[in-house]
Amino acid sequence: MNRNDNNLYEQLREKRNEVAKEAGIEPFMVLHNSVLIEIAEKKPTTAEKLGEIKGMGKKRLERYSEFILETINGSFVSPEPKKEEEKVYSVSEFIDFINELLVPERAVVQGEINHVKSMNGYTFFTLVDKNEDAALNCFVWQTKLSSFGLELKEGLELKVEGFPKIFKRSGRFNFEVEHIGLVGEGALKLAFEALKKKLAIYGYFEQERKKPVSKYIRRIGLITSAYGDAKNDFLTHLGKFGLEIYFCNVRVEGLYAIDEITSAIRWFNENMGDIEALILTRGGGSLESLQPFNSEAMSKAIFASKIPIITAIGHENNETIADLVADVYASTPTDAARILSDPWRRAGDLLASYKTNITHLLFALQNREWLRRREQGLGLLPKLVDNFI
Predict the structure, then answer these.
(1) Three-class SS of residue 28?
(2) DSSP 282
(3) Cα–Cα distance between 288 and 293 in angstroms, integer?
(4) Which residue range forms the structural domain that includes residue 217?
(5) 266 vs 10: CA distance, rounded Å
(6) Is 348 within a domain?
(7) What angle do CA 269, 271, 276 make, to 5 degrees?
(8) Which of 162, 211, 153, 203 lies closest to 182, judged by CA?
(9) Which of 146, 170, 244, 289 has minimal Cβ neighbours within 10 Å of its Cβ?
């Protein structure tokens, strides 16, 4: 940016910070610095032109266009460039400024733990690169860590998702972790068995506490990805019996899948209590790709659901903790569809059988009556069976 652009950027940033402070939110939630830079360079003078800037959506345009355009138009009033003053930050102000830039930059990082320490409600650990001499200081809230059902140990390889920030008190650069995933078949198997043992103690797998699924279901909630084969397999084999299906598109793999699926389960319970069953399904995969379904958070969401949940995760040889907790386990998406549709299919066959039996009975009764009337010289009966058919 040239000097004039930089002056305008600073004016926009200061005004943005004032708006954020009044609203009680972080400045980047109003407008990211990268958006302010583009505005300062392009200097749009109308709302229409401002709307062409990347990051200026309809809602932001409605809320913030007034102060942006006033600032831009005000910068044209005096053509004389202002004397550029040296900006001097206090330590606290500078750290706030840097965190404004850092916090929105979310990332997924993979590394190996070489140090773990818990204190004051946090767990601190260091991730090191296996191939380079590099280390990243990380921390996670202990309440969040407990929801993952993982025990962090040295030597464990992880994928963590979160964002960087600097602690004011120490000036230390850290990575705040919001999601954790294990890497490696061995670690995943150990975590699977440990969680399975823990949940068994608390009765998560007990048959007595599982909710029955109605025989003739009419309203279904389907939770899966819109882009996988599981959805199509389930719907194809469900048949056409007039069932109402309410679909919720979620990720079924990766660090974000747990939050999306557990949120979907809660949403159906809170907003659609008349749903008779929830179907949670996805295609097959490795132990790592199925990791969200072997998490404690997922197990608790299924356990707490008031709506019966049928899981159909992977292939027949895939076993997940979610399957063990679910009210009904289906080996595949196709199997889940058949569990729901077979009663309706059998009901149709049964009705056809009843019709045949009733028709035969009417024929027999009608023939008997014909014989009786013929013996007594009476007239013939109307063809009741033909009318029935």
Answers:
(1) helix
(2) E
(3) 10
(4) 207-340
(5) 44
(6) no
(7) 55
(8) 153
(9) 170
> What span, in angstroms and rounded, lies between the C-alpha atoms of 175 and 193?
29
Take residue 96 and report the two structure tokens written for it: 């706030």
Structural domain count, the chain: 3
With a cut of 60, say whether residue 66 has pLDDT above it.
Answer: yes
Which residues sit opposite 108 in a β-bridge?
161
CB 301 within 8 A of CB 326: no
- CA count, 13 A, side-chain hemisphere, 95: 13
Note the Cα 20 to chain centre separation in Å: 29
Read off the pLDDT of residues 127-160 as tens digits, 9 standing for 90 and up: 999 888 999 999 999 988 887 878 898 989 999 9
Distance CA 164, CA 223 (A): 32
Tell me whether residue 135 is in a domain. Answer: yes
Q: What is the C-alpha separation between 288 and 183, in angstroms, rounded? A: 7
What is d(CA 298, CA 160) in angstroms, rounded to the nearest whole number?
Answer: 18
Rounded Cα–Cα distance for residues 308 and 311 (Å): 10
Instruction: With CA atoms as reference, report the closest residue to 384 among 369, 362, 364, 368.
Output: 362
* DSSP annotation string for 340-363: HHHHHHHHHHHHHHHHHHHHHHHH
User: Are 200 and 303 spatial neighbours (Cβ–Cβ below 8 Å)?
Assistant: no
- CA neighbours closer than 13 Å in the CB half-sphere of residue 175: 22
Residues 173 and 233 in one domain: no
| 230-275 tens-digit pLDDT | 999 999 988 888 889 999 999 999 888 999 999 999 999 999 989 9
